Amino acid sequence: MSDILPYTDDAAANTLLADDPFALLIGIVLYQQVPVETAFAGPSRVRDRIDGLDPQLIAEMDPEALEAAFKEKPAVHRFPGNMSKRVQAVAAHIATEYDGDTAAIWTDVDDAGTLVRRLKQLPGFGEYKARIYLAVLAQRFGVRPEGWEAYMPDWPNISEIESPGDRADLKERKKAWKAAQKS
Prior knowledge:
By secondary structure, this protein is mostly helical. Helices cover 62% and strands 0% of the residues. It has one domain (11-182): Hypothetical protein, domain 2 (Endonuclease III, domain 1), CATH 1.10.340.30. It is globular.
């Protein structure tokens, strides 16, 4: 994949996101109601606490054990119980539908509409998360099936983060964008 995704202040966590498609997917799952840095540090924390990020193993894990790993201090998310369930559901989907290979979601796709439909089939993914994930795949990893431009988010999003300084800028632009949407 890419060399680095500078979504956290932890170089190892950023490298994991860039090297492991399932880690990036977990980050996208966790990316709600927490800062970018918290969401995308989550995959590294989960990996360290359960000794890996294999979708099949996570899917088959005892839900209480996975939840305990999410709750361990520092918690993976501000809602660790709910998020452990969501991550496990996504892992089960990847294990069942894609034989545990997250990249299989996009490797045989010719058009962006098909890719977005596949992403929206992931538990907890709607239009917003599907488009953000597609944007990261397109901007950072060159996954650009025909028509991908039509699905690019028209709001400030994480695919625009190219350096650690971009995170603060994104927060400000997102805040301004939300305020403009309200008026």
